[in-house]
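Weekly puzzle thread! Below is a chain. First person to post its structure in token form gets bragging rights.
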Amino acid sequence: MMTHAMKTRFAAVAMTLAAILGTGAAFAQSVDPDKYVPLPQGFADDLAPNAVHDERVRQYLYPKRVLWTSEKGVKNPELLMKPVLGQTSTAIMGDESQACVLSDGGGVLLDMGCEIHGSFRIEARHLVPGKSSNGQNVKVRVRFGESVDEANAEVGEKGAINEHSTRDQIVSVPWLGAIECGESAFRFVRLDLVDSDSKLIIDSARAVFIYRDIPRLGQFRSSDERLNKVWDVCARTVHLTMQQYVFEGAKRDRLVWYGDFTPQTMTALRVFGDSKVLRDTLGIYARETWPLPKWMNGMPNYSLWWLITIGDLYRHTGDPELVSEQWDYVKGLVQQLLMHVDEKGCGSFPTPFLDWPTNDNRPALDSGTHAMFVLGFERVAEMAQVVKDEATQKLAEETVARLKKYTPSNVGNKQAAALLELAGLEREGESNVETLAKGGAKGFSTFYGYYMLEALSLGGQDQVALDVTRDYWGAMIDVGATTFWEDFDLEWLKNAGRIDEATPEGLESLHGDRGAYCYVGLRHSLCHGWASGPAAWMSAHVLGVTPIEPGFKKARVKPFLGDLEWVEGSVPTPYGLIEVRAEKGPNGEVKTQVKAPKEIEIVTP
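Winning reply:
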């Protein structure tokens, strides 16, 4: 909702732009009222009421490598990597010497260099229509892939799909014109002429990179380049999912799933800071799409995750308006959740869900869900103080006390153990942290990996968490990942190839022959926001910056170096950056330098 100050500011901007552009100036709508964009004269009066501003930008990218060409029908494929003017011309339209030429059903496979989000554009200098052409055009099959094997696959082969985004399509490239297809997330693009009797002289074949132009305010660097790469890949992964709203997967599902959202939110806050797209996705989009008594995404656990994530967003931003905007919904959700806390103080749902690897383990599902009830009502109690709702605060605190009297077992499951540790629930026997540390990265998942790392640190096992980050997320980078995946298991690496090359004979496809549940084979998303959690964890526990009071009004700086020689970086806050550098001296003593805005009180050990 636009405040009075915002309306006043917008009116002043509008008057200024109208004076510059003339009386015909009008403005495209935007989800951000501070970012209305003027439409040009001659269009403004007619189009402005129907125009919506896209806050994303477009950049053209040329391929970095030609990975494969067909045995015949391809000339000069290397020229596809050379930037050109980007406008076809009749001056040289028939010249085949300075262009890539496809004929006789030829095809090429292109590597963009890393995973991106966007579309693909083909511009034709000249062509010869084939038997299936309708007029002056040539039919080209375009296949996107997050892996080489996916770009080479037929629809239906090893789980290859055309859902959520079309990865396999036939387009008609016009004479002296261009065609653009997508959107999706991809690294590899394969082009094949459909008709063997056609010819296509390509002026350019390039990706259209579509993204939000948001700077990385948060940074992380250390003496371990492997950890630095993990941080960078985490940041890239979540950036590609921040589109119109925040998707959970840039290729698939391209939907807002609120159970997946906490790791994405924490990484986005630590890398990019507070943003309108995060708030809109968690706020107005959530409330209007899933009004009570609906559960978020139709899943009770996801409504709990939404509640926890809103609380975490408040802890980071310290913005009371954020809480006020959600409060009526929060209070309604509280009453709905209380119906699922029994007389023993056990919080549960008839059909609980944590993540896919635990979906067949009902005891783990129940234990983890109970811990989520504790975490959710703790957030409610904190937010109730902000809006001075003493009745709801008391109700939430009493509910937390009831819930904590019931302490389920982690049943040897790392997902359940992580949530129980974060909720402060412990039983006799093997501790939650012992369960998490056992076997290192064995039993980790990309989604719950964030909570596992956080719980290890809470239990004093930062070095184990460092090692797991290297072993688990680093292993994906080792086999060609430039973004992190929907799921991953170290066992998948046995007898498997890489994702950035065609799987050699005798090996299995790491993308096509692995996966389970909803991510079997090539359907598997290789750019999933929930997998980005290590960046948030490294910022909070290795760089060591955490808020003591909401909005970082008071912050603790306590770096953990473990086997690292040094670490440095920055954390965005509502007041500006907290910058930290910590390094070991000759005697092993860690010296820490901190630079912070004057509004923030820094607490160090």
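Puzzle host: Confirmed. Bonus trivia for everyone else. The two ends are 42 Å apart (CA to CA).
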